[in-house]
Every structure is written in structure tokens, then in C-alpha cells.
Amino acid sequence: AQPRHSTVVTMKTVLSSRTIEIPEGVEVEIKSRTVTVTGPRGSLTRSFKHVDMDLKKVGGNKIRLDIWFAQRKQLASVRTVCSHIDNMMVGVTRGFLYKMRFVYSHFPINVAISGKTVEIRNFLGEKRVRRVPLLDGVEYVRSADVKDQIELSGNDIAAVSLTCAKIQQATNIRKKDLRKFLDGIYVSEKGAMEAAE
């Protein structure tokens, strides 16, 4: 019997293209796949050199992204890059706000800011002080109207969400039953801030 040779056929899409509209009051500069977005709240720069694609401005208020002869994995990056650029535009016009709540059953969690570092004390009654540095461009506010809540805001969604993740992970519980010990600091609400009238 002849041995069967299995050949893996990978489909290539000739051209995958997507356009993004640039909102009013936002300037976008593209130079060798490095995108700089400037708006009322400031400026954000991000490099997309790791993705093989054509990225250019067309017609003054649109960005076109083309990927030629892409396989399935590269096609997935088209929408991802568009979402990143879209988030940059929202960041420089409205900004992003993440709200975090403290959850505890017995020992009240004490959170304070010292310079550019968030300090978490009395977590599960431990003496150890947990310190989380705020990333560049992230602002920390203790909510006045809601008990046990902090608000983190900024233009860069990656910096704001990463700071929140670090705060949440600083209160990870080890060597205890996680179904019983639910203490921690968790993200309760997230999204773009309301547009200033």
C-alpha cells in the first residue's frame, strides 16, 4: 500500500482592508507604522512595526489598513490594530476611567497614595505593605461619594488597565480556600469617560 502524504493547505486572502474614521478635533500622524494621535487631552504614540501591513491616511479624515496575502493569524490582527488606534482616539478626546471597589469580610483594607505609589495596608490583617507603582499618565482619586472605592483614569487604556490589574493581583490570596476568602480589590466599572460639555 502506498503511504499517504498529508499536505496542509493554508488559504491566503489576497487583500484584507479596513478603514477608521478620524473624529473632529483629532490629528493623526503615521510614519513607518508608528501612529501618533493628538487631541484635546494630549498625545499618544504607538508602534505597530510587529505587524506586516500598509497603514496610511486617505481623504484627510480616514485611516486605511491593508494586509496582503495574509493567513488566518495575520487576518486577526487587522481588527486588533484598528481597535488599538480607535482606543487611542477615544483616549485623547475623552479618556478612560476604571473604578475599583474594596471587598473585605473582617479586616478593613486601607489604601493610600504616596507620591506615585499606591500602598495597600491591613489586607487580611497582614502587616506587610503592598506597593503598586502608578504607570505614567495614570491619575488616582479616592471616591468621595462611595465608600471603599478608588478611581483610576488616564488617556492610555493600556496604562490604566495594567495599573488596575497590578492592584488586583497585589491582593491575590494564596494557600487559602478562595471560595471562602473573597477579600481583595476588584474592578467594578470601566469605560470611556463622559464627554465634557
Summarize the SSE layout with pairings.
Blueprint: E1 13-21, E2 27-31, E3 34-39, E4 42-47, E5 54-58, E6 62-70, H1 72-93, E7 96-103, E8 110-114, E9 117-121, E10 130-133, E11 139-142, E12 149-154, H2 157-170, E13 184-192
Antiparallel strand pairs: 1-6, 2-3, 3-4, 5-6, 7-12, 7-13, 8-9, 9-10, 11-12
The shape is flat
Head-to-tail CA distance between termini: 77 Å
Helix/strand structural class: alpha+beta
Average pLDDT, rounded to a whole number, is 94
Strand order of the largest sheet: 11-12-7-13
Count of alpha and pi helical runs: 2
How would you spell out the order of helices and strands?
Answer: EEEEEEHEEEEEEHE
Question: Major β-sheet, in short?
Answer: 4 strands, antiparallel
Low-pLDDT runs of 5+ residues are: none
Radius of gyration based on Cα positions: 22 Å
Bin the helical content: 10-25%
Proportion of residues in extended strands: 35-45%
Number of strands: 13
Short overview:
The protein has 2 helices and 13 strands, in the order ββββββαββββββαβ.
Description of the molecule:
The chain is α+β, with helices and mostly antiparallel strands and 197 residues long. The chain has 2 helices and 13 strands. The protein has helices at residues 72-93, 157-170, and strands at residues 13-21, 27-31, 34-39, 42-47, 54-58, 62-70, 96-103, 110-114, 117-121, 130-133, 139-142, 149-154, 184-192. The strands form 4 sheets. A 4-stranded antiparallel β-sheet has the order 11-12-7-13, covered by helices on one side. The chain has a 3-stranded antiparallel β-sheet with strand order 1-6-5, covered by helices on one side. The longest helix has 22 residues, at 72-93. 20% of the residues are buried.
